[in-house]
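It is time I had a proper look at our fold encoding. Can you supply me with one protein entry, sequence and fold together? It will help me judge whether the discrete encoding reads sensibly. Leave the record below and I will have a look:
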Amino acid sequence: MEKILRGMKDTMNAVKPPRITALRDLHDAETGPFSILIGTILSARTKDEATTKAVKELFLKYKNPKELASAKVKDVEKIIKSIGFFHVKSKRIIEVAKIIHTKYKGKVPDDLPTLIELPGVGRKTANCVLVYAFEKPAIPVDIHVHRISNRLGLVDTRNPEETEQELMKKIQKKYWIDINDTFVMYGQNICKPISPMCDVCKIKKSCKYYKSKIAS
């Protein structure tokens, strides 16, 4: 895995140094894990740029779980209207804020079982919080991680949940934190869903997808 991660980073730096992922950009000393939690919920089916802009504007007005918990849905909607499904997400993040404020005294839980009990928080979101907010080993699997893991031949899975389980079995824990960040950037910049840039990829010799492409 070390060779794969290094090869991805070398490829990206050679082609075009990638920007940091939205979630990495959202980690704020003042809002801490809460901004990561809310940012991850808002990021579903939304471009990184829109997520980053909306979350930063949201936290300019609502500094903590207590303030967001008392916010009006219409006011939140106005701030995050560039986000996909903003009507539903506005209600959801207020609901989550209320739980964090009342049940957890303003502190975001730092374990998977507790996080996935929050409304709208699945394994990917919970794992993102663990990695980006707490630097705890986890493997958040989105469409990029799922696609690249299968293309490389690291796994042979049908959905992100299966991919997460297989990667956890096969990859040493010391690499978990780095996987999402690197794979997402690689998926957005190099190993795209359509027309992946195989010609510049420095790990193509180890790639199942590339080998099958050449063979055909």
Q: What stands out?
A: The two ends are 27 Å apart (CA to CA).
